[in-house]
């Protein structure tokens, strides 16, 4: 075994670790649907608790620990990625120190620290892999998750398909159909972008995986999940058009897609309330009552909120909201409201600035590279904006969406056009990385220094 074979094997092993990390934080390995009954069905196998949960949490901590070890071997690249977006770290540290004003200080501190730990895997991805490589890793992870979901549901239809309130809807190994819909809506982005740039011999397989993610989003019967998945597909050529258009037409079309998707999302989630409102009632039913009650509580503690993940606890601030809406939701069904309840306007400001940073740098990045991977930051930020209008997917501990947000944010810095010499050097090292990642040829050599 020569040095190039060894390097190739190590690189493949490390990339397999990264793919496994994506799967571990997706929550599918907990197989919660096997042990928790569907909504509206009493009881449930195993008393409503997955015995795999402690094991998966231990695996997640193992992934984080391994990430820290690998980052210690590459301190320069880690520090470069670390400082690309101070707002993301300000948001994470606000979650930790919120114990100081939280109604449940030990809970806020524990989950805040866990949130920072989860961000470490995102930092590892950003410091170790290019956007193109990250996209391939996430696409591989989503492909495995999608196939696993199909196989699991086929093997255990009583668990993988909802009973009760949402009878017939797929939830796969997750506890609720909306969680699977959210995962598949996000999964359409990396599988689509990787398929667009794939070599012909792999293209058919990748398009098939993309089709499976769309199909699973449809089978969840979540109109919001399917709508947002299709909206992200529609945004892909519009964002790509920003490369050759400096006018206002393309941004205007993008804005139309955002507004239309937002309006239709709100409508499908509040359809009964909308029809009820046409009868001249003073207010709509559905989530609007929940949002109004939540905003009323925000007014009482607007700047710092109630502490990270402290509001929706029993005997917490949510008691007022539960009384107003006459049921007990676990969150406000709006990520922006939920974040403000947890961390106040300060936390919301940090998150908003992080999104603005992604869009500004993302457009610049898009215009200096022709790879479809350059679309990933803009599309992921769009996913967060669209989905958080009816669900909460911003900052969560042990959560795939939070770590991907960290990875995307820290992967793009300020962009300038490369000089011819810098471009030649980058092409040389890309060629070198590709060669050592291929099976070694006896007597083969590293790339020559020509053009470096």
UniProtKB/TrEMBL annotation:
<feature type="domain" description="O-antigen ligase-related">
    <location>
        <begin position="210"/>
        <end position="351"/>
    </location>
</feature>
<dbReference type="InterPro" id="IPR051533">
    <property type="entry name" value="WaaL-like"/>
</dbReference>
<feature type="transmembrane region" description="Helical">
    <location>
        <begin position="51"/>
        <end position="70"/>
    </location>
</feature>
<dbReference type="InterPro" id="IPR007016">
    <property type="entry name" value="O-antigen_ligase-rel_domated"/>
</dbReference>
<keyword id="KW-0472">Membrane</keyword>
<feature type="transmembrane region" description="Helical">
    <location>
        <begin position="179"/>
        <end position="196"/>
    </location>
</feature>
<feature type="transmembrane region" description="Helical">
    <location>
        <begin position="247"/>
        <end position="268"/>
    </location>
</feature>
<feature type="transmembrane region" description="Helical">
    <location>
        <begin position="137"/>
        <end position="158"/>
    </location>
</feature>
<feature type="transmembrane region" description="Helical">
    <location>
        <begin position="336"/>
        <end position="360"/>
    </location>
</feature>
<feature type="transmembrane region" description="Helical">
    <location>
        <begin position="12"/>
        <end position="31"/>
    </location>
</feature>
<keyword id="KW-0812">Transmembrane</keyword>
<dbReference type="Pfam" id="PF04932">
    <property type="entry name" value="Wzy_C"/>
</dbReference>
<keyword id="KW-1133">Transmembrane helix</keyword>
<dbReference type="GO" id="GO:0016020">
    <property type="term" value="C:membrane"/>
</dbReference>
<feature type="transmembrane region" description="Helical">
    <location>
        <begin position="208"/>
        <end position="235"/>
    </location>
</feature>
<feature type="transmembrane region" description="Helical">
    <location>
        <begin position="82"/>
        <end position="101"/>
    </location>
</feature>
<protein>
    <recommendedName>
        <fullName>O-antigen ligase-related domain-containing protein</fullName>
    </recommendedName>
</protein>
């Amino acid at each position: 075994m020569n040095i190039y074979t060894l390097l190739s094997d190590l690189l493949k092993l490390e990339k397999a670790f990264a793919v496994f990390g994506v799967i571990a934080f997706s929550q599918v390995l907990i197989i919660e649907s096997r042990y928790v009954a569907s909504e509206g069905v009493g009881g449930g196998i195993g008393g409503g608790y997955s015995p795999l949960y402690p094991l998966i949490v231990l695996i997640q901590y193992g992934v984080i620990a391994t990430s820290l070890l690998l980052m210690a071997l590459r301190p320069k690249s880690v520090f470069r990625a670390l400082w690309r977006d101070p707002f993301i770290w300000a948001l994470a540290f606000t979650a930790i120190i919120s114990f100081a004003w939280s109604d449940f200080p030990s809970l806020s501190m524990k989950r805040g620290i866990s949130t920072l730990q989860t961000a470490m895997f995102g930092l590892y991805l950003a410091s170790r892999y290019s956007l193109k490589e990250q996209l391939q890793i996430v696409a591989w992870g989503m492909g495995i998750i999608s196939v696993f979901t199909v196989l699991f549901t086929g093997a255990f239809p009583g668990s993988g398909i909802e009973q009760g309130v949402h009878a017939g809807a797929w939830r796969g190994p997750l506890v609720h159909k909306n969680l699977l819909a959210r995962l598949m809506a996000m999964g359409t982005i990396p599988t689509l972008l990787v398929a667009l740039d794939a070599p012909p011999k792999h293209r058919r397989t990748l398009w098939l995986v993309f089709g499976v993610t769309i199909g699973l989003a449809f089978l969840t019967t979540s109109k919001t999940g399917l709508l947002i998945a299709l909206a992200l597909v529609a945004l892909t050529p519009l964002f790509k058009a920003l490369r050759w258009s400096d006018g206002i037409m393309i941004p205007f079309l993008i804005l139309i897609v955002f507004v239309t998707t937002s309006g239709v999302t709100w409508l499908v989630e509040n359809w009964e309330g909308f029809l009820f409102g046409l009868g001249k009632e003073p207010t709509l039913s559905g989530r609007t009552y929940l949002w109004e009650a939540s905003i009323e509580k925000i007014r009482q503690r607007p700047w710092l909120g109630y502490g990270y993940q402290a509001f929706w606890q029993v005997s917490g601030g949510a008691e007022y909201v539960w009384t107003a809406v006459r049921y007990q939701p676990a969150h406000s069904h709006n990520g922006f409201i939920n974040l403000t309840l947890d961390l106040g306007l300060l936390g919301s400001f940090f998150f908003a600035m992080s999104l603005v940073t992604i869009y500004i740098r993302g457009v610049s990045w898009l215009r200096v590279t022709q790879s479809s991977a350059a679309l990933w930051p803009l599309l992921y930020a769009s996913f967060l904006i669209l989905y958080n209008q009816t669900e909460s997917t911003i900052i969560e501990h042990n959560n795939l969406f939070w770590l991907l947000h960290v990875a995307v944010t820290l992967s793009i810095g300020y962009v300038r056009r490369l000089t011819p010499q810098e471009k030649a050097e980058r092409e040389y090292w890309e060629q070198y990385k590709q060669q050592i990642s291929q099976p070694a040829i006896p007597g083969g050599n590293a790339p020559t220094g020509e053009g470096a």
